[in-house]
């Protein structure tokens, strides 16, 4: 999940720089707000196709306060983290090479992301169990 956050934070900061001309990468307070907004957006995009990220007064310059307003789609988030999802598949291949898999249980909040669930289903050839809370599984 942290790696997903970092990809999204970087994207938001880059978009803000393109739109407003201010680089947030060196502003710890702005980065913290972007992190919190990224976590919230990921959760929202697990059940919605798009979300708006609105961070008023994210920074200021000589001309006054600056506000971040970006619409983020699930498709954009998926494109940002696609390589991260792909990287998780290889260790799965190694781990299950000789194993007999009866059930697939996803662990961690990031596994609520539909793209992650889709990649797991495609790899294992079966749906992950839905009766286990990913935040409580170990």
TrEMBL record:
This is Molecular chaperone DnaK. One of its GO terms (molecular function) is ATP binding. Keywords: ATP-binding, Chaperone, Nucleotide-binding. The keyword Lyase does not apply. InterPro entries: ATPase_NBD, Heat_shock_70_CS, Hsp_70_fam. The keyword Chaperone applies. It comes from the Bacteria. Coiled coil: none annotated. SUPFAM superfamilies: Actin-like ATPase domain (SSF53067). Belongs to the heat shock protein 70 family. Pfam families: HSP70 (PF00012).
């Amino acid at each position: 999940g942290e790696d997903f956050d970092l990809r999204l934070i970087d994207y938001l900061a880059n978009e803000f720089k393109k739109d407003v001309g201010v680089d947030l990468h060196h502003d710890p307070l702005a980065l913290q707000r972007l992190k919190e907004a990224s976590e919230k957006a990921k959760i929202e995009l697990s059940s919605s196709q798009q979300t708006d990220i609105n961070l008023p007064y994210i920074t200021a310059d000589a001309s006054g306060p600056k506000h971040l307003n970006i619409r983020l789609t699930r498709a954009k988030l998926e494109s940002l983290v696609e390589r991260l999802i792909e990287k998780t598949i290889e260790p799965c291949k190694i781990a299950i090479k000789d194993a007999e898999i009866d059930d697939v249980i996803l662990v961690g909040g990031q596994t609520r992301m539909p793209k992650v669930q889709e990649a797991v289903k495609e790899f294992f050839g079966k749906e992950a169990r839905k009766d286990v809370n990913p935040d409580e599984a170990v």
